[in-house]
Amino acid sequence: MNLVKQGTWVQIKKIILKPSQRAHxxxxxxxxxxxxxxxxxxxxxxxxxxxxxxxxxLTGRIxxxxxxxxxxxxxxxxxxxxxxxxxxxxICKDTLFGCExxx
Amino acid sequence: MNNSYDSVMSRKNQIMQSSVGIDYNRYEGKYLNFxxxxxxxxxxxxxxxxxxxxxxxxxxxxPLKELRNMTNLVRKVSPDGYGARIxxxxxxxxxxxxxxxxxxxxxCYQAKKLGFNGVIAATSGNYGAxxxxxxxKYGLKCIxxxxxxxxxxxxxxxxxxxxxxxxxxxxxVVQLSVGPELFYKFLxxxxxxxxxxxxxxxxxxxxxxxTLGQEIVEDCLKLxxxxxxxxxxxxxxxxxxxxxxxGIIKTTNQKVxxxxxxxxxxxxxxxxxxxxxxxxxxxxxxxxxxxxxINPDRSDVPxxxxxxxxxxxxxxxxxxxxxxxITEALSALEGIERGPAGNTSLAAAFxxxxxxxxxxxxxxxxxxxxSAGKHHQAQLAFARKxxxxxxxxxxIDEVAGKTIVLPKSVDLINAVELDxxxxxxxxxxxxxxxxxxxxxxxxxFLAEETxxxxxxxxxxxxxxxxxxxxxxx
Lengths: 103, 473
What we know:
heterodimer, A: alpha+beta, B: alpha/beta, Rossmann fold, 3 domains, 15 strands
């Protein structure tokens, strides 16, 4: 595995509360999981993915956790096409302008 | 310092007090009541000063637009002579893309004025980007704390987009898995950094929206020579409705009916790790709307300035399918592409307009920006991927977390009216259970809080075997 260099922009994850430390009034499905945190910052020392590391965040705070991603990216999209959306247009336009309008 | 969950929570009041620069004790009365109007004067801002602050920071003066095709569509399914004119306040055009910029602008102005180095807000909504954007203008550091992922690390597309926006404006984003203990990390961060708590629920978070109410009245008079008959606000934490209504009341003596609208997510638990990614709306829904209207002080400050029950005249719910349908209709018929959550109030207005006459005016008081993740196409795709059955039918049959029912015809968009008297009774119950004795001031307070008579309050209070002091000492 390649060494990630100090100063690289990374994302870490960390357990904030173990299941046993969590609030009392939680639904069962939440209670059995730990409270996790994800945060980004600059790596303070060379490390490998998966190692326990320290980062300096954008506000200058120090956080520790498991090294997860290098140069973490936003990959969210508009998702797979939903054809029903075209049908909504047709319903609206047929109602407003009459059925011929879409032909 | 002991940073265990219980220990940090026990320092809550002290941390909150020093992080907002407000001594809430000054406003407390005997037993239940506090001086709400005095709290709302915190900072000594006038409405015109707030407007100046906002206008010089990319906030406010958004256009009010008449939706002629939507109005005509409503009239196709309304009785003769019915179908009110629908207008929309295009709040997506504020810097950062939503009305939340109004709230953030005063919080960040105040943080800078009081000498804080940075601001923190706990929000998975548009407010994060709003605070980050305003903080950028004032050179303040900024941390946004989000509930974003389920425990397997799958994020809500809408919230991931909001994280991106926060980072675009230079903020640090701290993301957490599902659970109310987000508040614990939030308190730790306030303590660690000494930053200002840019809570949505401080007086600043509310007075910033009063300008929206004022602009709606002014814009409507300019366009139609009339004050709106009805204004519809998407309701979650209550601040949007509270601030808008206060702004309207400060601007006109004429009665404007204030309607709250939330997406119906009954049956989904907001703190459930599994349910988290089975909802298609992360804000503007009943999972926030109802708990906050019944108990506003469950927020992240000692006394919330968002108190919707004081101003709301009607409260309606819409299904996810109805709001997605209307969001697409806005795009297809008006050429205005906006985010779905902000269109909850538009879906409500579409339904309510059917029972209003053609000369009446209904104003939808917000829109929000749209982008990857934060779009009805993205949310529907995410729902389908999570096994939610999406089909056309009657939205009344929708079961949140299992189905999304898109209306098969326009006449099936029908807001469901909630029983506000029942909500008022639950509010009074929540309050009364906090104390053994009530003062006469408490009775007046509860009447103001519920916008009802003292007789209504006393009628409820007597159910709980509490002592009501005869005269205040």
